[in-house]
Amino acid sequence: MLVAAALCPCPPLLVPEVAAGAAPELDALRAACLDAIGVLAAARPDRLIVLGPTDEAGSGPYPQGATGSFRGFGVDLEVPLGAAETAPDRRLPPSLAVGAWLLSRTDWDDSPVEGLGVAQSLPRDRCLELGREIAAAAPRVALLVLGDGSACRTVKAPGYFDERAEPFDAEVARALGGADIAALAALDEERAAGLQASGRACWQVLAGAAENADRGGRLLREEAPYGVGYFAAAWS
Predict the structure, then answer these.
(1) What is the count of structural domains for the chain?
(2) What is the CATH number of the domain that holds 183?
(3) Is pTM, for the whole model, over 0.85?
């Protein structure tokens, strides 16, 4: 059963070494992400699963100890997912590497943790089904759910400006802050894809996992500093 969830964005710029001189711009967002992850530890889960958006090739499970690298972003930095005696061969995709970095900045202990890459194109019904399977996998399951909102908030955004972007992000912020699984499940796949919202599939996996949970939500941070919607929230 799902007992807690933390929702965080996953731009590599969250890692100060990657952001370099621009690192202070995301200090408040980083702090909100760490506050959200604190809710997971307080829930004392039997199992933590880190969900991150990926392409089709990167989807699937990643075991504890799998390592992510930020070399592709010009930084010689590697981060393992939780503690493990040996590092598995499969490398974490960027979103899960950010999740591993966030966990490394907290007091997370050696409790079991694993990663799951969720294809951004995964259909809604399969997302919900996957969430139900995850929630049934252990008595006390916690989720660290990674994903960004629209990438079309300004003309300098990765997806250029789209007038639908701000209303979409406002809808997501309300749903995440209110732990509204019906609103998350109702997010339109085609609209999300058009706005380059990487978090849609992971949020809908969370909606499936939370169907039978007694839940409350809190939006800790919402911003779009680079024309991309970023949210930090906690469910407990």
Answers:
(1) 1
(2) 3.40.830.10
(3) yes
